[in-house]
Design goal:
Blueprint lengths: L7 E4 L5 H12 L4 E6 L6 H5 L3 E4 L8 H4 L5 E4 L8 H15 L3 E6 L12 H13 L3 E7 L6 H11 L1 E5 L10 H14 L3 E6 L7 H12 L4 E5 L1 H10 L4 H16 L8 H6 L6 H7 L1 H5 L1
Parallel strand pairs: 1-2, 1-4, 2-3, 4-5, 5-6, 6-8, 7-9
The protein binds NADP nicotinamide-adenine-dinucleotide phosphate.
The site of NADP nicotinamide-adenine-dinucleotide phosphate (NAP) has 26 residues, from α1.
Length: 293
């Protein structure tokens, strides 16, 4: 594999959870010219103290981006959390990267990114992928599968209530930890070539039944998996206070687990990060305290 450790590497969104891990990994792997991009450079004073160049990078300020990306060889664009605005934001970043002479873009996409109206958050990632491919630059699209950490938002509640809701026909989700995905992105920034689209997954798909069994075993309390129709699952989420638009996005992820889109397993984490991905059971064991509430 080539090694771009001496190229100028910029990570956008470096103050986010994923971005921080990616920057730390680049430094740990010997990158010599790392630039941490963020909307608020004051949040990265600790990295600046370590000698990392910190630049203001805000995709909402398109006019500032060519300067922000000046001199950069390879760029990791971390998808933003601004659901609904991401195509415009990220397309602005891609256009600015091209204008600034960036040679390779790594982008954090999502599993089965596609334009279909019922694909939840997929279209925003798909149209960003299209913009990247259309730029003519080299790229590595990393379709990060569901973070294992997402489970810390709903499994504690399932443990408390003794019920875990999912969809009829669930075929599993290959949860990957955020840290494994971020270290993979850093590895791709350091070594990937050409134009590729790669799924970034954990080591095995985990069904809702398996999630309930593991949560129950680790928390020491019974958790019953309950399989619902999409309409009933969405109605339950809305009744529990989840805004309808977000409930629809969550439901889309679950539908994709039924069709098998989320059960894909690849070796992308091991290839780019040099480590085997943490299994879902290991992740839950490490977060047992959070599960017990
Ligand atoms: N696969 C999954 O299960 C999953 C789950 C949740 C999220 N995600 C995606 O993965 C991304 C990284 O995850 P995370 O856990 O690190 O999220 P996070 O900590 O919430 O970070 C949000 C990210 O969005 C960036 N951002 C927001 N507005 C921006 C703007 N105007 N210009 C440039 N960057 C902007 C932030 O950068 P700064 O604050 O540094 O400016 C930060 O990197 C998320 O943003 C989301 O797209 C995936």
């Amino acid at each position: 594999m080539p090694n771009y450790a001496n190229s100028t590497l910029l990570v956008t969104g470096a103050a986010g959870n994923f971005g921080r891990i990616a920057v730390e990994e680049l430094l740990a792997r010997g990158a010599t010219k790392v630039i941490a991009g963020t909307r608020d450079p004051s949040k990265l004073a600790d990295l600046a103290d370590k000698g990392v160049e910190v630049r203001k990078v805000d995709f909402n300020d398109a006019a500032s981006l060519p300067q922000a990306f000046a001199g950069v060889d390879r760029l990791l664009i971390i998808s933003t959390d601004a659901i609904g605005s991401r195509v415009a934001q990220q397309t602005a970043a891609v256009e600015a990267a091209k204008a600034a002479g960036v040679k390779h873009i790594v982008y954090t996409s999502a599993p089965a990114a596609r334009p279909d109206a019922d694909a939840g958050l997929g279209p925003e990632h798909f149209w960003t992928e299209v913009a990247i491919a259309g730029s003519g630059l080299d790229f590595t699209i990393l379709r990060n599968h569901m973070y294992a950490e997402n489970n810390l938002m709903n499994l504690p509640q399932a443990v408390a209530s003794g019920q875990l809701y999912g969809l009829v026909g669930d075929r599993g989700t290959s949860y990957v930890t955020r840290a494994d995905a971020a270290r993979t992105a850093a590895g791709a920034l350091l070594s990937a070539q050409g134009k590729t689209v790669e799924d970034v997954t954990g080591p095995a798909p985990v069904t809702n039944e398996e999630r309930a069994r593991l949560a129950s075993q680790i928390a020491g309390k019974p958790v019953t998996p309950i399989a619902l129709t999409p309409a009933d699952l969405k109605a339950g989420m809305v009744a529990a206070g989840i805004p309808e638009g977000f409930a629809e996005a969550l439901l889309a992820f679950q539908r994709d687990a039924v069709t098998g889109h989320h059960g894909v397993v690849t070796d992308t984490v091991a290839r780019y990060s040099g480590r085997q991905p943490q299994s879902f059971a290991e992740f839950l064991e490490a977060n047992a305290a959070a599960l017990k509430g």
